[in-house]
């Protein structure tokens, strides 16, 4: 499912979004997010940029603090560790990464209260931290929507590979039987 209305809204504000997000995305530590896989073969940086873009569009359309939404969304997964490395259990990562991202973001940037809450509460309702602002709720739900899309894409690719290899096996069996 494509969110065409968001694409149209975003086109009206794309230059403004770029100006808001530029200092964040050009930061060397944020660029390091490109080195960490997040949802399958999607890097953490690309995931966060997608969440920032959609969150910005929604908040801008609703007259909310779209700048804080974009910055908070870009930094919501600003943890700089390999979550797939041995010893990091998925549940531990689920609970730990919002706080790790907030710590990293607080050291690297001057954050306002909305941005801090967006980062800390983005795993709600799976985490104990609750969203205090409308922008935090929007980023939390957009994050889940984007993650679902990314995992769905990954599963679709796996199914395609399986179908192709199954087709080759069937074709190979037929050609050897002839």
Question: Explain this structure to me?
Answer:
With 178 residues, the protein is mainly alpha-helical. It has a single domain (4-177), classed as Orthogonal Bundle (Hypothetical protein af1432). Helices cover 71% and strands 3% of the residues. The protein has helices at residues 4-25, 28-31, 44-62, 66-75, 90-108, 113-121, 134-177; strands at residues 37-39, 42-43. It has a two-stranded antiparallel sheet with strand order 1-2. Strand 1 (37-39) and strand 2 (42-43) form a beta hairpin. Helix 1 (4-25) crosses helix 4. The longest helix has 44 residues, at 134-177. The model has no long low-confidence stretch (mean pLDDT 82).
Q: Count of helical segments?
A: 7
Largest sheet: spatial strand order = 1-2
Q: Helix content range of the residues, please? A: over 70%
Rg, alpha carbons: 19 Å
Order of helices and strands: HHEEHHHHH
Average of pLDDT:
82
């Amino acid at each position: 499912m494509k969110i065409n209305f968001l694409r149209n809204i975003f086109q009206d504000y794309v230059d403004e979004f770029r100006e808001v997000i530029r200092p964040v995305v050009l930061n060397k530590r944020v660029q390091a997010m490109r080195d960490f896989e997040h949802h399958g073969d999607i890097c953490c940086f690309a995931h966060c940029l997608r969440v920032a873009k959609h969150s910005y569009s929604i908040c801008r359309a609703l007259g909310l603090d779209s700048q804080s939404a974009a910055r908070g969304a870009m930094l919501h997964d600003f943890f700089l560790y390999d979550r797939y490395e041995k010893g990091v259990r998925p549940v531990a990562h689920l609970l730990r990464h919002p706080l790790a991202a907030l710590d990293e973001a607080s050291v690297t940037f001057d954050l306002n209260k909305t941005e801090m809450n967006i980062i800390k509460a983005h795993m709600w309702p799976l985490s104990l931290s609750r969203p205090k602002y409308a922008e935090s709720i929007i980023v939390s739900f957009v994050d889940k929507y984007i993650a679902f899309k990314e995992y769905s894409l990954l599963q679709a690719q796996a199914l395609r590979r399986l179908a192709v290899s199954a087709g080759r096996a069937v074709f190979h069996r037929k050609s050897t039987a002839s």
